Amino acid sequence: MKRLVYYTMLLIAAVCTVSGCSKNAGEESFPVAGEWHLASVTGLDMEDLDVYAVFGNDGRFELYQKVGAGRHWRFDGTYSLAGTVLSGTYSDGTEWGSTYEYSLAGDGQSLTLKALNGSEEESLYDRQDVPDEIRSGAVTVKAAGAEKAPEPFL
Amino acid sequence: MLAGCSADGLAPDSGKAGESSSSLPVITKAVNTMAEADRSTLLLFLDDAEASASEGICEAVKATGALSVRRAIPCAKGKEAQHRKYGLDRWFVVTLPEDADLETAAEKFASVAEVEKIQFNTRMQKNWSGTVRAYVPTRAVSQDMVFNDPMLADQWHYDNIGDTYVSLYSKPGADIGVSDAWRLSGGDSRIIVAVVDEGVKYTHPDLAANMWVNAKEISGNSTDDDDNGYADDIHGYNFVSGGEITWAKEDDSGHGTHVAGTVAAVNDNGTGVCGVAGGTGKGDGVRIMSCQIYDGEEGGTVDCTAAAFTYAADNGASILQCSFGYPAGVNITSDEMYESAARLEVAALEYFLDNAECPVFEDGGGLAIFAAGNDGASTSAYPAAYRKCISVTSVGPDMLPTVYTNYGPGSNIAAPGGEIAIGNESRAGVLSTIPSEVEATGSDYGYLEGTSMACPHVSGVAALGLSYALQQGLSFTKEEFTSMLLTSVDDIEYYLNGTKDYSTSPLVLSRYRKQMGTGLIDTWKLFMQIEGTPCLTAEIGEKTMLDLDLYFGGSAGNLTYTGYEMSEEDREALGLAEDPELRYGKLFLVCTKPGAAKITVKAIAGGPVEGTGQNIGGIPVSKEISIIARGVRSENGGWL
After folding, report:
1. Pure H helices in B211-282
2. How far is Cα of residue B336 from the mean position of the Cα atoms in its chain?
3. pLDDT score of B129
4. Nearest chain A alpha carbon to B530
5. What is the CATH number of domain A2-140?
6. Quick check: B489 and B411 in contact, CB under 8 A?
7. Cross-chain Cβ contact B594/A44 below 8 Å
8. Does the interface ipTM go beyond 0.95?
9. Structural domain tally of chain B?
């Protein structure tokens, strides 16, 4: 029995070593999973910003962002966790502008993303669902083609 | 394209009365020559509106046997002061007897002290000789199409999927990008487009519901019920005959009806074709006002055109849709020459541009959209080339310039005009409404090609954009909207390499680079600009290169930029370490702190130089660009 426990612990340790304890698609728990609304970001007035981030338990994410004028634009892609480090790639192949260190607070109702690109930018998100009208009215950014720049479409 | 008087007909006076480059007699006080002029009429500009009854005029009338002297622009109740401001009340048309000698009559009137200027009534003769090509079905309308009009699938100019049934050279995206925009708006009946052309068949089954109706006028009573200067003007007016609007006389081609259909054929009515701003089947298409300046073999004179422009302004039109003009690059080589030699026409055009009551424009006024011309010349024709007009060049279903299109100075934007010769049967033409009376098989639909067909695509997109703005409760200055319209484009420069050797004449494509205007018009992009353009993101501490495509369209890299303006407050907000730079359609910034700011960037829509009056140049456009500086920036604009 002791041997079984020992081998089981070895196996867990091995998996953690290989994956960096990351949560891959299909696993049941991504600590950041849920729908988040940007509440503040270092040095910026939130008046013209409205950003929702949706992290799925399947390793996929969606963004609904209105940065300045116009309607919300929808981006999507995949993300992964390595310890407390969050990184991702948009579906057009573009890497996120930074990786982030995440932390949860307030019984999981608050998410902080600290950029790890040296900028020290820190963003605070509150757990909040994306309103239906934003989901339905957002334009999706197409993947870049060989000849034409990305275009939004309904 | 419909028109074209000879170059001599508009010989400019270079500021000196009667001077011209032709060998025709010089008439004192004349602003142009009598070549290509209507021999039975003469235009006078008097020093006072009341001078038409002066002793001198009466004597001249008697001496020449003139049949009448009437105002060129009828008086419209409530508009008198505005007409006076543009001198429209001082222009008169003298009608001469058939056997009159025009030169002698002009000299006689020129000798009258009250006559300031004489303008020969240049006849813009139709040079349209194209035959309507019969409709050839290609594929059935599919369920995912926005509207149920059965011929929509064949209107590649709206949604080009690269169908080889249209042309072996079809390219996906060589269209006006309207399909997605239709999900937001199909038009608005408060927006009126004046089709200045042959008469529009207002009874056409695919147009009737979108015809403008002058509700204050009673049909058929020969009375000017609404005191606008015209009797029985229900759907517009026939400025040639003064009678009913016509479309099926000998020499009528169906041109006006075809153009009208592209702007606003009724959508989602289960019939025929779609129009760019033809509504959603709920009576919400933009309205077509027929301003008939060609009537069979008659018409096309300056007095008709000027009266049509003025009528459009006084009766609610927001857009002048004009697929006619003079031959390109032959005699008029600057706006000043045009202003000098075509005075009455220009006065009326200016009147429309300033006094039309477009409900979206905070500062009033309207848009004048003209075809660039079909001479294959390396300059736009006038009036399109005039710096206050939008000149439309033509591309085919292959995204390339058509063999006939004018291009070069004065050209502002491109749209699909069709090129039948490169197509499968006639399918590469533009499909629209036609009077069955002029179509060989009696059909209500057919294909035409030309910058005449490209032009109404831009008029339609502009009308649809105005409709959407109106429905969103948004308003803009005319300059703001024009800037948005001319920068809502897809790039065509990318394709201008090598030779288009399958045209009837091979085209060396490099000749068209930066000469077709800002790019191929795209409706969706206009809608997104109307809603508001997102901020561009700059990364703090890095020299960031910002792509201006979102603000200046897909050909942003090929526009000529003339500068930028940024307040000290905005510079401070971003902590700019150095002056911004504009290079190759990109904006370079070094921001040192997080913040948001605005910078106004100026460019030229069409060509390397702005129209100054002394040249043929482009339209200045300016865009206020919002910038946000933060610690993170992704290349595709995503927040994370």
Report:
1. 255-264
2. 20
3. 54
4. A70
5. 2.40.128.370
6. no
7. yes
8. no
9. 3
